[in-house]
Specification:
Length: 101
Amino acid sequence: MQFHDDVIDIIKQIPEGMVVTYGQIAAMAGNPRGALQVAGVLHSSSDKHGLPWHRVVNRLGEISLPRGSGYELQKSLLEAEGVEFNRNGRIDMRLFQWSPK
């Protein structure tokens, strides 16, 4: 349960216009191999806790949701915050990846 709560707290802190990876959140929450668990927390708790779910992407800087099933919404929410995608649909993680102090 602590991991779940830590993941929620971390996601709530992601600033507008920045992204983090599933694995990065897992590591910050104490389980470096828990990326799939982070996805589960997002799926089950985003609405309940008002999480900025759209700021979580895969390790390549890509949206993991399939086209037609959330991809377009996530991309539009990120673009509205100033996050840019290259022509291959990737985010430059050197520019937009959040690392807490």
